[in-house]
Amino acid sequence: MTMAERISLKIDGKKISVLKGKERKIFYIHSSGSDAEQWRYQLEEVGGYAIDLPNHGESESAEINSIDDYAYYVSEAIKRLCDKAVIAGHSLGGAVAQKVCLDYPETCIGLVLVGTGARLRVLPEILENLRKEPEKAVDRILEMGFHGKSQEYERVREKYLKNPDILHLDLSLCDRFDLLDDYRGGKVRIEVPTLIIVGREDRLTPVKYAEFFSKHIPNSELVVIENASHMVMLERAEMFNSALDSFVREVLSE
Ligand code: COA
């Protein structure tokens, strides 16, 4: 298990918890219904900081109505902990990472977009079932999000089922997130070096979404990881870390 250290911050009076691996200017943002632990293999081997978003993990609850609200907390945490960073986000976290990079550019040296998209529509049956039959909805998400059943699969399942309401809120925010036309029309421009990572078998945020980024982000590199689905940082940690580490070395001129 992780050797990461826990740090507590107060942002607008709320306790926000961050896990810290070895010192490195990388800031990780987890996906819907998850928490900083999702990045434990990266914290251990590559280093950096991983936030528990408000209402997740050991962070306090806060009123969150949009991806922008999460982006605010993340930008504040980055400013206080490491001034600026390579920002890595997965799925919902990838939407937050895009918004931090666009709205708080002073905090962002590079971007790592993992299993995410410029638009993140969610299957209506998932959103409906999370309210009525959470187990059914969670199993559907996991079936689309994992390459096969594993210990990691069971851990994530347990986490999701602990708080289906938060998972529902997060997925509703994803469903409303849409920068697709802004990228197409040039209203959104990501200027920093960007690494795009996706699992070949990802059915929640398919390779097509990653290719869209690759086309619209000028200074970007796309890595498609075989035998992996949505939870690629857990499923293929070694390959993931190797791609992340070389990218970070270059961006941080180490
Ligand atoms: N990047 C590039 N293209 C995208 C995109 C993205 N992030 N998001 C959507 N698109 C494309 C789609 O591929 C589609 O293109 P097409 O018309 O050429 O087939 C078009 O935009 C419209 O797609 P979408 O907005 O997703 O609406 P839809 O009504 O076609 O489909 C869903 C809705 C929910 C069925 C679909 O989004 C889906 O299967 N999502 C993945 C499953 C899921 O729940 N993921 C959770 C993500 S957090």
Which helices and strands, and how do they pair?
Blueprint: E1 5-11, E2 14-20, E3 26-29, H1 40-45, E4 49-51, H2 67-81, E5 85-90, H3 92-103, E6 108-114, H4 124-132, H5 134-145, H6 151-162, H7 164-176, H8 180-184, E7 194-199, H9 207-216, E8 220-225, H10 232-235, H11 237-251
Parallel strand pairs: 3-4, 3-5, 5-6, 6-7, 7-8
Antiparallel strand pairs: 1-2, 2-4
Helix pairs in contact: 2-3, 4-5, 5-6
The structure holds coenzyme A.
Structure, described:
The chain is α/β, with parallel strands linked by helices. It is 44% helix and 18% strand. The protein is built from 11 helices and 8 strands. An 8-stranded mixed sheet has the order 1-2-4-3-5-6-7-8, sandwiched between helices. Helix 9 links the parallel strand 7 and strand 8. Helix 2 crosses helix 3. Bound molecules: coenzyme A.
Please give a quick description of this structure:
This protein has 254 residues and is an alpha/beta fold. The protein is built from 11 helices and 8 strands.
Per DSSP, what share of the residues sits in E-state strands of 2 or more residues?
15-25%
Query: Ends: how far apart?
Result: 27 Å
**Cofactors, ions, other ligands:** coenzyme A
Strand order of the largest sheet: 1-2-4-3-5-6-7-8
* Helix-strand string: EEEHEHEHEHHHHHEHEHH
